[in-house]
Design a protein that fits this description.
It contains 15 helices and 19 strands. By secondary structure, it is an alpha/beta fold. Strand 11 (342-344) and strand 12 (350-352) form a beta hairpin. Mn(2+) 2 binds at residues 275, 280, 298, 359. The active site is at 287, 361.
Length: 504
């Protein structure tokens, strides 16, 4: 299992190679017969996928499957220890379910879950009999997704543990076409690097991940051909970006605007805007309860859009994408903005601050203005851990998506399903709830659903640009591993955005 070994997680995340950050994946035409574990597959039609094994081993597996009433259901596993006349210490028969339902999402999830199971058994070498496995996708696509899921699950953040898990695993996957599978997986491995960056940035403790630390992390992407620009508080004020500057006013370092631009072609750019609150105390509307300890993850939107730019740059993708990230620590001090204050945004709209804990929409408002003004994007997508209301509406198994653009809603919904980062559409509206007596708008609604009023606040800053808002509150941190997601920062959004960019 990978381990970051520096005081701050950035070094490994930014400079580490794929092999340093993940399991060792090998695609071959011939199965390695001398590994700790062998994985074979069986679908619900009970087509025998392990005819290549000797007669006695097949007999033993069939007996175990019969005793366990195994019928090839998706994700079900029958394990045989120390099989007779086998060089493997264990053989796992894994159910694929219905072949015509086997897609990229299911295979990545399966790869992640099996990786966790094999790691628990301390298997160091694993052979996976993937030849002949097909479904909605071809063999090489499914094999690449299996490896993708395993690698994603393998990555963890254990920097602060005295005795971290240093176990590593090597996979040998026998596939129908070695070259095609490797080519397919190479793109996925670049996306993994973006996910790992986003996870590490999100998992890092808040005193080690300030807006300045985040900006320094972004600058490391210059080695991949990414143009990085950083605006400091005085520059923000000179541009009239008082909402972003104001949120960070209570912290020692103040706010930053971080821009990372990967120009893979000369098309009109796509703008990805990320909320980057490196710690959210709530300000004077201070948070109470245990949830405040999770507020290091309030910059997960910024981490995800930066990770996406890294993924596209590593893949040398044919896209023009710019990430614009509003970074601040929302702290309490004599310099902090106070409830009742009025801030004027770069858009020109004044905002009455009724609640200093509704700060994410403030940093996004100026970041969205900057993206529109300086890059004139074809599409603008913002990603933010924005509201507790979103969690109450759809929980943490979905992210909430808002837009008046039906095509964007459709494209992102499809992309989300493909990568196990599903979206649930919620409505825009209730703008009348944002009325203020002394400013153009208030930063919180006087009623209505909170996730919707927050999204509708942001809509004021979308202009005429095609725009989509994704609320990832509840999706940024995982308390335990599941599927291809390990515990800690999830990197939610990197795979979603990458899938959408590469597919559309």
């Amino acid at each position: 299992m990978p381990l970051s070994t520096r005081l701050c997680a950035l070094s490994v995340a930014l400079f580490g190679s794929a092999s340093a950050l993940a399991a060792d994946i090998q695609f071959t035409s011939k199965l390695n017969e001398k590994t700790d574990a062998l994985v074979v597959f069986q679908d619900s039609e009970q087509s025998n996928a392990f005819k290549f094994l000797d007669r006695d081993t097949r007999k033993q597996l069939n007996k175990a499957m019969e005793a366990d009433k195994f019928s090839g259901d998706y994700g079900k596993v029958v394990e045989v220890l120390a099989p007779v006349d086998s060089k493997h210490q264990r053989i796992l028969v894994v159910g694929l379910g219905e072949r015509d339902e086997l897609d990229s999402a299911k295979m990545a999830k399966l790869g992640g879950n099996l990786h966790a199971k094999l790691e628990q058994k301390e298997a160091a070498t694993v052979s996976v009999a993937f030849k002949g496995v097909n479904g909605q996708l071809s063999n090489h696509e499914l094999a690449a997704q299996y490896a993708h899921g395993a690698n994603l699950r393998d990555h963890t953040f254990e920097l602060y543990k005295k005795e971290p898990n240093t176990h590593s695993m090597t996979y040998n996957l026998s596939v129908d076409d070695q070259g095609q599978t490797q080519a397919e997986y190479t793109t996925l491995s670049h996306i993994e690097q973006g996910v790992f960056l986003a996870r590490d940035l999100t998992s890092e403790v808040p005193t080690e991940m300030t807006p300045v630390d985040f900006a320094n992390a972004a600058k490391q992407l210059e080695q991949y051909g990414v143009e990085v620009k950083i605006l400091e508080p005085e520059q923000l004020k000179s541009l009239g970006m008082n909402a972003l500057e104001g949120v960070g006013r209570g912290s020692k370092e103040g706010s930053r605007l971080v821009v990372a631009h990967y120009k893979g072609n000369n098309d009109t750019p796509i703008a990805l805007v990320g909320k980057g609150i490196t710690f959210d105390s709530g300000g004077y509307s201070i948070k109470t309860g245990k949830s405040i300890a999770r507020m290091k993850s309030d910059m997960a939107g910024a981490a995800a859009v930066l990770g996406t730019v890294k993924a596209m740059a590593l893949a040398k993708a044919d896209v023009n994408v710019v990430a614009v990230m509003g970074m601040a620590a929302n702290m309490v001090s004599e310099n902090s903005i106070a409830p009742g204050d009025v801030l004027r945004t770069a858009e020109g709209l004044s905002v009455e601050i009724l609640n200093t804990d509704a700060e994410g929409r403030l940093v996004l408002s100026d970041a969205m203005w900057y993206a529109r003004t300086y890059y004139k994007p074809e599409v603008m997508v913002d990603l933010a851990t924005l509201t507790g209301s979103k969690i109450r509406a759809v929980g943490n198994r979905y992210a909430a998506v808002f837009s008046d653009d039906e095509h964007l809603i459709s494209e992102f919904t499809v992309a989300g399903k493909a990568v196990n980062e599903p979206l649930w559409r919620l409505p825009l509206g209730y703008k009348d709830m944002l009325k203020s007596d002394i400013a153009d708008i208030a930063n919180v609604g006087s009623g209505g659903p909170g996730a919707t009023t927050a999204a509708s606040f942001l809509q004021h800053f979308a202009g005429e640009t095609r725009w989509l808002h994704i609320d990832i509150a509840g999706n940024a941190l995982a308390s335990s591993g599941k599927g291809e997601v390990s515990a800690g920062g999830t990197g939610f959004g990197v795979r979603l955005l990458s899938e959408w960019l590469l597919s559309n």
